[in-house]
């Protein structure tokens, strides 16, 4: 379970982020603060894994506050102003979210935390195309364009962004071997791209409006994969 603290002087922004956190079973909102000084005091005496931090606040800016945080606490900046982006990345922030923040964008930032932890970052694999042989046709596909895979009998169906489906004769293990580390099996018949998740419920998730089941056998692995601890 990833322990999260929110510091933002806007009540509506806090409520939105709390709602997003509640939708992800591997996140827990420890506390939220409108006063950055109160938030700083809490963080100094409690174990916080992730800080969702506004930048433009009275009394103490998010940038100044971030400079006092111990390295073990990861930071995602949330702000309505784009001009702080360069300075935020100089502080090694995980991400920089511009308000209004969609759930999809929030989830990608959370997934990025896991990718930073991995030895193989997304940037090293996302531009490498893979080969998919469908009958006598060989397709070259960028993994970033793959939403999810569905196993039906002896065949795997690759579902792509543009609505295209490619049928390949292969096993689940064969598919996982060729795919980057942001693909994970969630069911005996489904592999998904973490970048494509729209929302996660207790026993299913949504990708492009499609409800995909999360098997009991794979649920713990999915949560563990997204969890930073």
UniProtKB/TrEMBL annotation:
Alphabetized Pfam families for the sequence: LytTR, Response_reg
Protein keywords: DNA-binding, Phosphoprotein
PTM sites of type 4-aspartylphosphate: 54
HTH LytTR-type domain span: 130-228
Source domain of life: Bacteria
Residue span(s) of domain Response regulatory: 3-114
Entries under InterPro entries matching the protein: CheY-like_superfamily, LytR-like, LytTR_DNA-bd_dom, Sig_transdc_resp-reg_receiver
Gene Ontology molecular function, alphabetical: DNA binding; phosphorelay response regulator activity
Entry-linked PANTHER family: STAGE 0 SPORULATION PROTEIN A HOMOLOG, TRANSCRIPTIONAL REGULATOR-RELATED
Protein name: DNA-binding response regulator
